[in-house]
Write a structure and sequence with these properties.
alpha+beta; Ubiquitin-like (UB roll); 2 helices; elongated
């Protein structure tokens, strides 16, 4: 069976890791995560619960990899961007209402 060259990327605020490795043709994204050796760099993390993607696009873990695919593991967001925008908008409305009472 032929082998494919792939990469896996994971980034923390203070540390980024990019690993290149080979997998057999027919390997799924999920299988490749296990084969990557990334767990040795981040032993405290559970990669099975993380969202994953290829080249910035969310991808199912059952996706069969192709030559030169770059697997990306996404950390959970600390704050939901939509919720933060809503909170800022609400705070802005309160400031406007408070400023009208001169």
């Amino acid at each position: 069976m032929a082998s494919l060259n792939v990469e896996i990327v994971y980034a923390m605020p203070e540390k980024q890791t990019l690993l290149s490795f080979e997998v057999e043709e027919g390997t799924t994204l999920d299988q490749a995560i296990g084969l990557s050796g990334l767990q040795t760099h981040y032993p405290d993390l559970d990669f099975s619960e993380m969202k994953v993607g290829l080249f910035g696009k969310l991808t199912p873990r059952t996706h069969v990899l192709r030559e030169k695919d770059r697997i990306e593991l996404y950390r959970p967001l600390l704050a939901d961007p939509k919720e933060v925008r809503k909170q800022r908008a609400a705070a802005g409305k309160k400031m406007k209402k408070g400023g009208d009472t001169k």
